[in-house]
Specification:
Layout lengths: L6 H17 L26 E5 L5 E3 L2 E3 L4 H11 L4 E6 L5 H13 L4 E4 L6
Parallel strand pairs: 1-4, 4-5
Antiparallel strand pairs: 1-2, 2-3
Length: 124
């Protein structure tokens, strides 16, 4: 028989695809913050997210790049002009004062971003 059997190759490729689909979200760590624990349903996301992180010491990060808090509004405004309906996820350490988190949320809204999600951890 001189034909190549492709079925085992397809099986192996499907298994690898499933493994990478499961492992890829776990590899995205970012800045270490102690997130508050709440119950809620998970969000389904189709595209690359824009994540604003507030660390314990009130440092602001966009994805994993540290930025000046005074420049947050202008940076997000440029992003919102380039990409309409961009969704932003806000990760804030639970030790950061509530007032500071709300101030950052207001800056995000003033920049023209209407879709804002809060990132939390499920309770243990």
């Amino acid at each position: 028989m001189s034909e190549i059997n492709v079925t085992p190759l397809v099986d192996v490729m499907l298994v690898l695809l499933i493994i990478f689909m499961v492992a890829a979200p776990m590899m995205r760590e970012g800045i270490k913050v102690d997130l508050p624990q709440t119950e809620g349903k998970d969000l389904y996301v189709e595209e690359e997210n824009l994540v604003v992180t507030i660390a314990k010491n009130k440092e602001i990060y966009i994805n994993e790049q540290k930025i000046d808090p005074l420049k947050l509004g202008s940076i997000l405004k440029r992003i919102s002009l380039a990409e309409r309906d961009k969704e932003v996820f806000l990760r804030a350490d639970k030790s950061v004062p509530y007032g500071y988190v709300v101030t950052i949320m207001a800056e995000i809204k003033k920049a023209g971003i209407n879709k804002l999600g809060m990132v939390t951890e499920p309770p243990e």
